Amino acid sequence: MLFYPLQFEPILKERIWGGTKLKTLLNKPITSEITGESWEISTVENDVSVVANGAFAGKTLNELIDLYPAEILGNIVYARFGKQFPLLFKYLDAREDLSIQLHPNDELAKKRHNSFGKTEMWYVMQADENARLIVGFKEKSSPVEYLSHLNDKTLLDILDTKKVQSGDVFMLETGTIHAIGAGIVIAEIQQTSDITYRVYDFDRKDANGNTRELHVDLALEALNYDKIEAQRFYDKNENTFNTVVDCPYFTTGFIPLNGSAVFSKTNDSFKVLMAVEGDFSLLVNGESYHYKKGSTVLLPAVITDYQLDGLASVLEISIS
């Protein structure tokens, strides 16, 4: 069996805060003016990615992993996670502010939801002028202070905001209170989990006049009340892998591509490439594959040598 770079049909999600930038900036086939998310690679229950290209077209990622676990996932990943794909890749378009929320850690998520926790990172692809993120508390807080501000609708007074621009990266450990602000497009890399505790939603109502469910009680135990520094700074040396985030759940690097770059790896882990700016070509086993901004590509673990060509910014993600 000759394995090749895999692309998947995007799983598009309407959101009350979504817009149209996933189409205008990232070429996604959206048909709604409130599309907030494109799930690029997913094995979340009821949202499993389907291969869009090549000999495996029409098969789900779970089917491929079931047939070829070590070849797709890699030796280390297969040994650690079995036939589970441990990460979820998305693009998000926030036309309006997202809810203020947080995610549980592995232990709590397993106990409550039989799920992974949700450690995640954001790469800002585009940001309108003065666009901001909410990440953590301004100063160390407590359950009493937090609940007091939540009940008084003054929660924003104690939360830290960051003005952002293209290329900014934030690493969100589980328990970090956060929100993506209006006017931001983000590439998101996270554990395979769809567990979110929403604590404040600006009293918004949907098209039917209903407010969205809040999870205030569940969030209390999951919250990290410490002041944290989530922003990550990284090198941008051309045509090479610059480490951005290296955590137990994933390693992400930034590749500023200007011309050609040749890479070799072991078969311990799959790799995922996300085209966050520009277009590039990928040369594998003598075949050339072409990708535009907004593309996401899964390289099965058995592909150990490849070449990138073009003028682009690429995120490369694996598990070590």
UniProtKB/TrEMBL annotation:
Keyword Zinc listed: yes
Source domain of life: Bacteria
A UniProt-annotated Pfam family: PMI_typeI_cat
Keywords: Isomerase, Metal-binding, Zinc
Keyword Isomerase (UniProt): yes
Residue span, Phosphomannose isomerase type I catalytic domain: 8-115
Domain Mannose-6-phosphate isomerase cupin: 243-314
GO molecular function list: isomerase activity
Name assigned to this protein: Phosphohexomutase
